[in-house]
Design a protein that fits this description.
The chain is α/β, with parallel strands linked by helices and 186 residues long. 31% of the residues lie in helices and 16% in strands. The protein is built from 6 helices and 8 strands, in the order E-E-H-H-E-H-E-H-E-E-E-H-E-H. It has helices spanning 16-25, 48-56, 70-80, 99-112, 163-168, 177-184; strands at residues 3-6, 13-14, 65-66, 82-87, 121-123, 134-137, 149-153, 171-174. Strand 7, helix 5 and strand 8 form a beta-alpha-beta unit. The longest helix is centred in the middle third of the chain and has 14 residues, at 99-112. The relative contact order is 0.19.
Length: 186
């Protein structure tokens, strides 16, 4: 069985962080308003401590949408591949308070993807350490490492990546879970 590593945030679930930020700031930002991969950059530096306190009392996974068709396709992938979820849990703005985020991620996965083996949940920041046959991630930086097939899941921060750059990095762009299904479940 080929080993498949799938990212969580902005791949299996979407929009949680922007919804929390909008609630916190009383704004109506879209993800496209962020100028970087770290959507938390929308938080003004003057409000950072208040944001950390706000975030620590909430569960971002209460705010997310489950990516359309992800549960159905993941269930099929789980039957054909040796599936692992690899996700970073370190809260960038307060790394020492990241244990809660890890717990929230674990509970989200168990609740919404109950067919996945929790022993195959990997909570890690440096995904380059992991070897797999196939990787699915929204971050080009997290697709670094050994894999014969690297699927870049379209997200607000990578949608402008040129076809030339995708080709140079051996990435295949996927816009949704139906694209993944058509590639991996032929």
């Amino acid at each position: 069985m080929e080993k498949l590593i799938v990212d969580m945030d902005d791949v299996l679930c979407q929009k949680g962080y922007i919804r929390m930020i909008n609630e916190f700031l009383n704004k109506e930002y879209n993800e496209e308003d962020a100028n970087s991969y770290y959507i938390n950059d929308l938080i003004p530096k003057s409000k950072l401590e208040d944001w950390i306190e706000f975030y620590s009392k909430k569960n971002v996974y209460d705010y997310v949408d489950i990516a359309e068709n992800s549960q159905e396709v993941m269930k099929k992938l789980n039957e054909k591949y040796d599936v692992y979820i690899a996700t970073s849990y370190v809260f960038t703005d307060a790394p020492k308070d990241s244990g809660k985020t890890l717990n929230d991620k674990y509970n989200f996965l168990c609740k919404n993807f109950p067919f996945l083996d929790p022993h195959k949940f990997i909570f890690i920041s440096n995904k380059e350490l992991l070897e797999a046959d196939i990787r699915i991630d929204d971050s080009p930086n997290k697709l670094i490492g050994k894999a014969k097939l690297k699927l870049l899941f379209t997200a607000y921060h990578n949608k402008n990546m040129a076809d030339e750059e995708l080709k140079e990095n051996n990435f295949i762009r996927v816009n949704n879970w139906k694209d993944i299904e058509s590639i991996l479940l032929k």
